[in-house]
Each structure stands twice: as structure tokens, then as C-alpha cells.
Amino acid sequence: MVSYKSKRTTGREGPSDMGATAVLQIETEAEKDAQAIFENALRINKELKGKEDDKVYRGMNNYAQYFEKRDTAQGNASSGMVRKGPIRAPANLRTTVRWDYQPDICKDYKETGFCGFGDSCKFLHDRSDYKFGWQLEREMQEGTYGETDNDPHQYEVDSDSDDLPFKCFICRNTFKDPIVTKCQHYFCEKCALAHYKKSTRCYICNNQTHGVFNPAKNIISKMKGDGSTVTKLDIVDQMASSGGSESD
């Protein structure tokens, strides 16, 4: 058991204003920082202005300034924004700031619709996006801001296409002549052939492809449904011309 002896006073402990005027001084003392040195040099130069040199050394910061600078980076004004040295931090503010450069969104999934880590990825698999400020302003000027589209089903996602990427993992662009490897990874035909010249393994999982690149029929059918133009794949001829193996 702990007991304390009363001081028999009605006043509260701590500052009487409950710390409303408390200051935070964790850096150089205000009397010794760059602004104080700058102001002291101005004061000494003002006192010695027009007087004969008395041969007294007053420190390296207090040499006589015979040319008075104005409106420059080292101006003659002394203020909170000291022109020379570190700026004095405000002593009456206690702020905590965190710059969020970590959106924690999976970049691969957002850009391509595929992530090699799958469900074990620690970042958020989100492909949603927001309009820029200039886009909103343009809609306001055109009078279309807040208007709903005529087709209420255009944002619905088909469950069959949930696992299909919508962009090539190599070039990060929309698929052009999409192909699929034996390990079920999708690329553009041109990107897959270019990578095959460097390595015969899959760009994503590093498994051996054996030069087998089949047309990605599910993505092709989806692109046709969107009205995109899809050319017929000729993997065997492409692989033969690039010095690769025959494909199925």
C-alpha cells in the first residue's frame, strides 16, 4: 500500500494554464541557433556602423559588413524565416505528420489483373480507380457531373472472368494476340516470343515452357465480346522464324 502526504493546498499540480502555453524546445536553444547568431551580427554591425575600427575581435560571425545586402538570399531582415542557416522550428506547435507513400495496393494486380503471390499477397488486390480533379471539373463545366449511365450492368464483372488478367504481365499493356503457357500464365504473343529468346522458362513462375504457347481462347473470346480486333495466332510459324521450338 502506498500513501502520500497532502500538501493541503487547493491548487492543481502542474502548470496553472494546464499546459496551454507550453513550448517544445528539443533542438538548439533559441539564444544559440542560427537566427539568434544572425540577429546578433546585425545588431553589432549597426552599433559599429560609421565608427573607426577598434581592433576588437568579436567572433567569426560578427565581422564588419561594409556592404549592406538587400532583398537577396542573405538579406538584412531578421525574422522567423532566417535567411542563413537552419530555420528555427516553431516552439508552440506539437504536430505529428505521416506522409502516406504506402497505399498498400498490389501494383501487379492493379496493372495486370494477376499477382504471383495469389491469396497470400500481403497487399490489397484492388483494381478500382478514382477520377482526377480535372476530370471532375470538366464534368462540372459540361453539366454531366453526377449523371448516371444508361446501362446499369456495365460495371458488373462476370464470375467466369474473375481470374483472367486484363493486361500482359511483361509489357503491362492490353493483350495483343494473347497466348497461354502450360503453367496457365497469359502474355502477348510478341512479348512471349521475345522473352523465349532470352529464357525458355516462364516469365512469372520460372517453370519450363518447352516452347509451348497456345492461343488464349478465353481471353480472345472476351476481347471479341468487347469489340476488340483479335488476329489469328500462328505460333508455329512465329517460333520457327525466331529460332524456337515448335508449339502446339
UniProtKB/TrEMBL annotation:
GO terms for cellular component: U2-type spliceosomal complex. PANTHER family: RING FINGER PROTEIN 113B, ZINC FINGER PROTEIN 183. GO terms for biological process: snoRNA splicing. The keyword Metal-binding applies. Residues 168-206 form the RING-type domain. Keywords: Metal-binding, Zinc, Zinc-finger. Signal peptide: none annotated. InterPro entries: CWC24-like, Znf_CCCH, Znf_CCCH_sf, Znf_RING, Znf_RING/FYVE/PHD, Znf_RING_CS. It comes from the Eukaryota. The keyword Zinc applies. Gene3D superfamilies: Zinc finger, CCCH-type, Zinc/RING finger domain, C3HC4 (zinc finger). CDD domains: RING-HC_RNF113A_B. This is RING finger protein 113A. Transmembrane segments: none annotated. Residues 100-128 form the C3H1-type domain. A zinc finger (C3H1-type) spans 100-128. GO terms for molecular function: zinc ion binding.
